[in-house]
Amino acid sequence: MGYSFEEGVNRKGTACIKWDFQEMDYKGKSGLLPFSIADADYRTYEPILAALKARIDNGVIGYTDLEPAYLEAVVNWCRRRHGLVIEPDWIVPTGGIVPAMAQALEALTEPGAKVIVQPPVYDPFYSIIQASGREMLLNDLILDETGYHMNLPQLQEMVEAGASVLMLCSPHNPVCRVWTREELQQVADICKGHDVIILADEIHWDLVLGGRAHVSMGAFPEIREQLILCTSCSKTFNVAGLETSNLIIPGDDLRGRYRDYLFARYLFVPNTLGLEAVKAAYQDGDDWVDAECAFLTENAQIVCDFMREHLPKVKVAEPEGTYLLWFDMTAYGKSSEELVDAIAEAGAGLNAGAHYGENYDGYVRMNIACPKEQLLGGLNCIKAALDQLS
């Protein structure tokens, strides 16, 4: 079956963050083509919309719980798409991955516990560590002529020195890395035998580009007892507003402690419509996701070709996964904020790279999950802004 991602959706006037609230992020500017917050500007998978409508047509949206069909859909998706064999009782639904990770830190570690992050990284990682009163350890990625890599010797030192948690972003936002099996095996080898919890944010696990394959941290049985695998269909199927995710926790001890924390705070009631969306997505959404990844691969290539031809001073991180591209614009001698301001002045809204790590001023992030007409419009805005700066 053919799917089109070129038909945009008019999201203005829907309280959409990136279309309707631009003034907050761009110094009062509005009417910009948005390439910021990580949701898509094409229609979601139609069977999800049909399932939501059918549930609404029932006439009551009340308290719900996990039915076997829901658990079966998640189990089968993990097996079909990621080669993971999981048990239904490992699945812990939560109201979004970022809140779930914050809850995991509070439930499973003590104040002052050391938590490792790998900058540049998704900025809520920083805020939830700080808000929980834990200590942050910065294991910055290494950039060389072949791209970004983990600093594994430093990671080992931090683990052996008593770190409590590794917050792993895989695929990595914002540098677009899809970590190889060999890299992740080394992470597993470093962490096994220590008490460190691997809190793996794999929200983008379905979104791999150019025929690559995502390897989940769930593929390494030797770390099963210390793994919390954070998954969701929100990015894949463009249903982030339903705030529904699934933590997969194989270890009985971790899972029991985490569930106790949720139950004590009445955080165990799933989102009724979110459950319907997950079932519809995971039952037979494979072909749609394959088409989406092909479309995003095309968009990523358009960006790389455009930069190579028109803006060769911009270094684009190799697009391997996610729909978020990472630009090194340090050759222009401007801060991330100055770059984003200039691009906004030209008509497009992007993210400042300094948000993702203090060493990444002069970098910019761009969301490419949109029709090509919108994407090309944004690229021309970037060119106009950078030509002015030159």
Write the layout of secondary structure elements.
Layout: H1 17-20, H2 22-25, E1 33-34, H3 46-57, H4 68-82, E2 91-94, H5 97-108, E3 114-117, H6 124-131, E4 135-138, E5 142-144, E6 147-149, H7 152-160, E7 165-169, H8 181-191, E8 197-201, E9 227-231, H9 234-237, E10 245-248, H10 252-264, H11 272-284, H12 286-310, E11 315-316, E12 324-328, H13 336-345, E13 348-349, E14 351-352, E15 363-367, H14 372-389
Parallel strand pairs: 1-13, 3-4, 3-7, 7-8, 8-9
Antiparallel strand pairs: 2-10, 5-6, 9-10, 11-12, 12-15, 14-15
Helix pairs in contact: 3-11, 4-11, 5-6, 5-10, 7-8, 12-14, 13-14
Please provide a brief summary of the model.
The protein has helices spanning 17-20, 22-25, 46-57, 68-82, 97-108, 124-131, 152-160, 181-191, 234-237, 252-264, 272-284, 286-310, 336-345, 372-389, and strands spanning 33-34, 91-94, 114-117, 135-138, 142-144, 147-149, 165-169, 197-201, 227-231, 245-248, 315-316, 324-328, 348-349, 351-352, 363-367. With 390 residues, the chain is α/β, with parallel strands linked by helices. The protein is 41% helix and 14% strand.
